[in-house]
Amino acid sequence: MTKINSNYQKLQAGYLFPEIGRRVKAFQQENPQADIIRLGIGDVVLPLAPAIISAMKDAVEEMGTLQGFHGYGPEQGYDFLINAIIQNDYAPRGVQLKNNEVFVSDGSKCDSGNIQEIFDTTCKVAVTDPVYPVYVDTNVMAGRTGAYLTSGHYEGMVYLPANKENQFSPPPPQEKLDIVYLCSPNNPTGATLSREALKAWVDYARQNECIILFDAAYEAFISDPEIPHSIYEIEGAKEVAIEFRSFSKTAGFTGLRCAYTVVPENLKGKNNSGESVSINALWNRRHCTKFNGVSYPVQKAAEACYSPEGQAQIQENIQYYMNNAKTIREGLQKLGIEVFGGDNAPYIWLKTPQNAKSWDFFDQLLTQAHIVGTPGSGFGPSGEGYFRLSAFGLKEKVNEAIERIQKKLQL
Amino acid sequence: MTKINSNYQKLQAGYLFPEIGRRVKAFQQENPQADIIRLGIGDVVLPLAPAIISAMKDAVEEMGTLQGFHGYGPEQGYDFLINAIIQNDYAPRGVQLKNNEVFVSDGSKCDSGNIQEIFDTTCKVAVTDPVYPVYVDTNVMAGRTGAYLTSGHYEGMVYLPANKENQFSPPPPQEKLDIVYLCSPNNPTGATLSREALKAWVDYARQNECIILFDAAYEAFISDPEIPHSIYEIEGAKEVAIEFRSFSKTAGFTGLRCAYTVVPENLKGKNNSGESVSINALWNRRHCTKFNGVSYPVQKAAEACYSPEGQAQIQENIQYYMNNAKTIREGLQKLGIEVFGGDNAPYIWLKTPQNAKSWDFFDQLLTQAHIVGTPGSGFGPSGEGYFRLSAFGLKEKVNEAIERIQKKLQL
Fold first, then answer.
1. For A3-7, B11-15, B224-228, B393-397, which range has the lowest pLDDT when averaged over its residues?
2. Which of B4, B121, B268 is facing A269, going by the closest CB pair?
3. Residue of B nearest to A12 (CA)
4. pLDDT band for position A249 (50/70/90)?
5. Predicted local distance difference test score (pLDDT) of residue A42
6. Distance CA B289, CA A135 (A)
7. Residue A77: closest CA among chain B residues belongs to which residue?
8. What is the DSSP string of B220-269?
9. Same domain, B206 and B355
10. B60, B122, B249, B261: which to substitute to probe chain A, counting the most A Cβ within 10 Å?
11. What share of chain A is helix, strand, coil (3-state, %, to 5)?
12. Same domain for B124 and B245
């Protein structure tokens, strides 16, 4: 029989969300009258902004005409979108990018999952703990790790614990890494990396010739003007970092699919002979060989995010979610629960009361208040004793959830 | 510095289409008045069918409402589309599929490029020659080959020559393969695999425990009722084959991006310990970890391809292109040029007159008739002395092209 990629068998079964589903279902069956409110998922709920809908409809109509039909586009994305990205997301922050440094794609999950492919399988890779599972799983699949250990870690991968002691911003380690994944604003902790913290990472990467994979999918939720939105706001970052951005959370594109990745021309790696190689050229080759561009109407929809109306409408939605985050934060704080995140990110990361295990708090919240959240331990062993609540919900539901927690939760 | 995946450096620079572009540009500069007709590319030109446009616009509007908004969908695709695929593309041909055997994606290029990832890097892989380059390049990137040889082949990959002597339908080899890529109707040769030829491959795969990766992206162009549209029309194929299908050429989705891949539950591989492993489960894991589903409006557009109006409109477009193919075939045959394909495929594969080299014929066609095609040698060494013309063009242009060839080409 054909031999499979046995690295896949090292992967832990997707445990977190199926297990949440199982427990919720069991509870609902025993309590059919319970009105369960879900603050567990990271998906948006508000409809797409009118400016986006209008632009996308126009593009669909174009596709029905001989003159306006668009077939295969550039794999890297249309210049109309790349120009809008550079002029709106980077130029105002003092970051100059060339068009060939921006790669439009169908999602940050895809990009942050595929990026490891252009690096050697022997690279030493680090992630923070807790962590967005895609970074880890895709490296396991590629054979960069050993077995899954009872500690909850994979052998051979470096984990940087993020906890309240280090403000969920782990500093660079002593050891030399080849690749490090950083996510700011962070999923799941809601923490952001300050300018100083980011500078420390860029300096580390330059000294150690390490590449930073910087996931900024949630940058639109930053409200503090001191916090960088892009790693390229730090001097020298273009020589050490790749940045991932997404329209998913910024503009509600989770069901439309559009994102982009920045790979600066100055970023270099080395080949087996030690010669310097352009990472931009490698990613371009990967992108053109295994990807065929984003749907034209979706790219037109993404472009509309940058129009004055689009900007205003998107900001309104972000503010809506951030008001939810405020409601959750303050509501929990009133109960004496220690909360993190939720000020520059749509996630609230809370320390479980009485240091309860994450899953025990999950059960308590579900059975006492009929609210679903996400156990922190599901994101990694350092998430044990923490819990994630998402601000992506309807305001009325979020308000009711907090009232219920205040009334029903037995602390 | 971070070590790169050095397998990428084995890849030959994308030579074919850039070189075509270079020669066309040079000719155009010297002959600014020349009206060049392009029959080189494989992209469609007709607008999307009205039924598709209408369904997609409705879906976009839904996305602008609270009730109709769709966020993350199932990575594997919505059931409304999977049901339509199974009921329309398979059930009428006697093929029963379960919903979990169909994976909707954003393109066959992506799927046929990514599929190799779930197999071991030591697998022995075969392709036909000439071949769609993605099959080869993605295996090179994964390290399944050695260097590029002066023969035009990669070391360690098995090439099955497809030529007029074997009707462009190479039989299974004596040697044992782990994976073989077959494409019918074929890009670039336009040839199809008969029921007998496909049965020989399925029997070979069963006897040798080999997996067939069957690319049927052009199946909608089959007019001969004897030719299978799906490999699963052959008994036992579900135990040995994965099938790729696409809306790109069938319904003009090259700029919308939707395709699907069938991975039967009964398909098995083995792990390092020799234990049997479900290929469907592996692909599902890959799909869910590195992909986040196709845009909801695009899936609604794809579903509309199966409505009675959608079917009629799509058939009309296919007939339009096949009329072009007939024009090209018959026009060339009148000149005594030996032509293949073009009857069950949108590509015409011709033997160059006087056994000219592919690139010499390219230059002759460009300079004498101002027509651009694709040199067969660009698809592999066995394509030398052949040439590809595409039927994807406007009727008027195709007619004019053939008239010019008949009048201007000095044979």
1. B11-15
2. B4
3. B285
4. very high
5. 85
6. 10
7. B255
8. GG---TTS-SSGGGSTTGGGTEEEEEEHHHHHSGGGT--EEEE--TT-EE
9. no
10. B60
11. 45, 15, 40
12. yes
Among A121, A255, A269, whose Cβ lies nearest the Cβ of B63?
A: A255
AA identity, residue A72: Y
Least CB–CB distance from A290: residue in B1, B114, B257:
B114
Spatial separation of the C-alpha atoms in residues B21 and B291, rounded to whole Å: 33
User: Residue A248: which CATH number?
Assistant: 3.40.640.10
Q: Is the pLDDT of residue A13 over 90?
A: no
Across the range A17-36, mean pLDDT stands at 93
Of B2, B47, B109, the CB nearest to A123: B2
Whether the per-residue pLDDT at A14 is higher than 80: the answer is: no
Which of B66, B138, B290 is the best substitution to test chain A (most A C-beta atoms within 10 A)? B290
What residue has token string 């194929």? B237
| Residue B178: inside a domain | yes
B60/A56 touch (CB, cutoff 8 Å), yes or no = yes
Answer whether B118 sits within 8 Å of A64, measured CB to CB: no
CA distance A334 to chain B (A): 31
Distance (Å) from the C-alpha of residue B50 to the closest C-alpha of chain A? 7
CB contacts < 8 A, A to B, total: 254
Strand A374-375 and strand A386-390: the pairing is antiparallel
Name the phi and psi angles at B277, rounded to 5.
-130, 140
Within 10 angstroms of residue A26's Cβ, the number of other Cβ atoms is 11
Cβ neighbours of residue A197 under 8 Å, at least 6 residues apart?
Answer: A169, A171
CATH of the domain at B351: 3.90.1150.10
pTM recorded for the entire structure: 0.97
